[in-house]
Structures are given as structure tokens and as C-alpha cells.
Amino acid sequence: MAYLSMGEAHRRITDYLSCFSAALLSQDGPSLTPLLLVSSNSPLLLSVAHALDVFSEWPRLVDQIDDQVQLFAEIVSPLLRCLQSFRAGQFAEAYVSFEKSANAFLQEFRNWESSWAMAAMYTVAHEIRILAEKADKELALLGKNPEKLQAAGSFLMKVFGVLAGKVSKRVGALYITCQLFKIYFKLGTVHLCRSVIRSIDTARMFDFEEFPVRDKVTYMYYTGRLEVFNENFPAADEKLMYALMHCNPQREANIRMILKYLIPVKLSLGILPKLWLLEKYNLIEYKDIVSSLKSGDLRLLRHALVEHEARFLKSGVYLVLEKLELQVYQRLIKKIYIIQKEKDPSKAHQVKLETIVKALKWLELDMDMDEVECIVAILIYKNLMKGYFAHKSKVVVLRKQDPFPKLNS
Fold first, then answer.
1. Residue 271: inside a domain, yes or no?
2. 3-state class of 390 per DSSP?
3. Which residues sit opposite 398 in a β-bridge?
4. Which of 135, 213, 257, 380 is most buried as measured by Cβ atoms within 10 A of its Cβ?
5. How many Å from the N-terminal Cα to the C-terminal Cα in the chain?
6. In this structure, are 375 and 290 located in the same domain?
7. Are 108 and 190 in a shared domain?
8. Cα–Cα distance measured from residue 103 to residue 86, given in angstroms and rounded to the nearest whole number
């Protein structure tokens, strides 16, 4: 690191404090926001962090301005300590300092009638989540309780309450909600999302379409994921499709994140994606699953689930994909039906269990008649096939008109 004189360090800190003070006094949101980006590689904040290490008496510089701006020291002093700790790689200490600064900032923000500092509040919300994640990783490595992300969630709930309570600031509630979703999904406490969703729905605080597009896309993405977990696929399809259609087409990483959940939903509804889509967004793990649904190859589906098990489990879609087995059975029986129809149309609707057992053996799946009978009964019960089972003759009698309904109907 380049040598820095005491005089230059003093000047850098003074300039930062003057900018911060001026932004608060003039209510200049665009000037205030970059001064809060602790976790960024901002050249300005890097230079200030260096200066803080050189000029150890910087707290008295803060005190000189404190008389001019209410709560200035309470906001800026812990913010600068946070900056020092963060650059030193002491993330737990950085989080503690930032939380103090954030609470003081929120106290002032609550008193401002206009929404001039909304972007700054967004930055505070984003930074506290990022710092909490880094702090929890550090604490876990030290064998301590990783509790900072949970604390960040509690702080953001206070922010949500402030935003929801004032008409001029309600537009920011959805951004904070999305930050909360990211925390709850990270912690595995997705059930907590429900209370926030209810608050937005019941308060009717804003016409949804009036929120910023970025926030609407993120909100629909996370609520769509919640519907996936609940296996409410029509609702998940609607929300994730909204996120996809309104996502910036240049943000391919975000599109891939949406598709990672939308594809299992579409598959569950009987809609198969094109191969070019999987290749374009590097979602090749779904390729064999799509092929198995097209061909009725249960062996291929199971192989794909084993091969990509870790990835599917991490994203939480493994159980959704595993349940596609019924669709694969349906496709296999449908192929048998089509072959029989070509040979003898009059008997196409009568499918012997023995024929299904032979087809499964050809796929190297050893299943007896009782197991196959059970699967057929489930297919009929689930409305994946129309017909009935003739127990004595061991024959599935399919309805002559449309025996295999479309799943998305």
C-alpha cells in the first residue's frame, strides 16, 4: 500500500465527512448513497479506509461536525469503524459497527417527511445483509454462533415498518421485502416470508404495478419459489413467468436463476423446454430429464436424478423432479397404446399389464405385476390416464376418446 502522510490522511477523512454532512443538510440522496457502500471496492472508500489507519485521531474530526447535523456522530462514527474493520477482514466487528450506524440512520430517516433518502436506505438494507453474510461465515469458521444474518432480518423488519407506515415511502417496501426474502431463504426460514407477504397483500399499500420493475421481478421470483416448495405449480408458473417476462434480457445470470425453478414447474405441468434454451442458459442438467419425459424412459430419469442430485437438492427442486416418474410411466403406456393402435386399432385401448412389465424389463427395471398394477391405479387416480383396471384379466381398459389428458389442462 502506498505511503500516506498524516496531512493527506487528515484531508481525505475531512473531505469524506464534509461530503456526508453536506448531503444530509441539503437532502442530496445521490451524493449520500455512495458514501454508505462499505462492501464495495469504491476507490473513495478504499482511500478513506487507508486514511483511518494512518490518522488515529479521526473521532475528533467527527465531533467537530456533530453540532451541525443531528445524530451525525451516531451515524458516521460507527460507519467509519465498520469501514476500518471490513478492510481488515474483521467482518463480525464490521457488522456490529454497521448495525449501530444503520439504526441511527433509520431513526433520522423516520423523521424525514419526503423520500429523498430512499436510495440511501436501499443501500443500508443491502449492505447490512451482505455484511451479515460475511460475518456469519467468519463466526462459523471460529466455531461461534452465526447470528448476524438473523439480526439483519430483525433490523430490516423495522425498516419495513417505517416504510409501510408512510405513504410517501411505501414504494420502498417491496425492495426491503426482497432483501428479507434473500435472508429467509439463506437461513432456511422461508416460513417467515408469509408474514411479510400478508403485510403487503392486506395493507393494499400500493398498486403492485407502480413498484419499480427490479423489485417486482425479485418479488415474483421469490414468491414463485415459495409456490414451488408448496407444489402449487399453476401459481408458481404464473409468478415465475412474470419474473421471466419482465427480467432485463441482458441479465442472463438472473434469467438462468428464474429458469432453474421455472423449468421444473413447466415439466410438472407437462410443458417441455427446447434443447436450445437449456444450452443457452447452461441448464444441461435438465436435458436427460426432458428426454425421459419424451421417451417414457424411467431409467434415464433416475440416472439424471442420481447424476445431478447435489445440484437439484441445493436448489430445492429434487422432490419436484422425482415426482415426474408418474409422467414417465404415463408416457411409456401411451407409447404402448400408440404401437398397439398401429397394429390393431380395435384393441388399442386394451393394454395388458404383462406388456407394461415387459417394456420395463427392456429398460432394465425389474417390476412385478402387483407393482405395475399399483402404478396404473395411481395414474388413473391422478387423472393422468382415463379408463379403468380390469383386475381379473389384468388389463388396463383406456377410454377410447382422449385417454391421456394434457397435464396443463
1. no
2. strand
3. 387
4. 135
5. 65
6. no
7. yes
8. 18
Grid coordinates given for 125: 438494507
Q: What are the backbone dihedrals phi and psi of residue 268, each rounded to the nearest 5 degrees, phi first?
A: -65, -25
291 shares its domain with 344: no
Residues 338 and 381 in one domain: yes
pLDDT tens-digit map of 288-324: 999 999 988 999 999 999 999 999 999 999 999 999 9
User: Is 175 inside any structural domain?
Assistant: yes
3-state secondary structure of 406: coil
- In terms of Cβ atoms closer than 10 Å to its own Cβ (0-12, 13-18, 19+), residue 374 is exposed
Tens digit of pLDDT for each residue in 136-191? 999 999 999 999 999 999 999 999 989 987 877 888 889 999 999 999 999 999 99
Instruction: Tell me which residue range forms the domain holding 375.
Output: 325-398
Strand partners, 387: 398
* Together in a domain, 157 and 303: no
Q: In terms of DSSP H, where are the helices of 247-399? A: 252-268, 275-280, 287-295, 298-307, 309-315, 318-322, 325-343, 353-362, 369-381
Q: Do 177 and 87 have their domain in common?
A: yes
Q: In CATH, what number is assigned to the domain containing residue 356?
A: 1.10.10.10
362 and 301 inside one domain = no
Please state the domain count of the chain. 3
From the centroid of its chain, how far is CA 400? 45
Residue 268 lies in a domain: no
Average pLDDT, the chain: 90
User: Are the C-beta atoms of residues 92 and 141 closer than 8 Å to each other?
Assistant: no
**Residue 296 to residue 387: CA distance in whole angstroms:** 19
CA-to-CA distance for 162 and 88, rounded, in angstroms? 33
Whether residue 1 has pLDDT greater than 60: no
Residue 317 in grid coordinates? 427442486
Same domain as 70, residue 30: yes
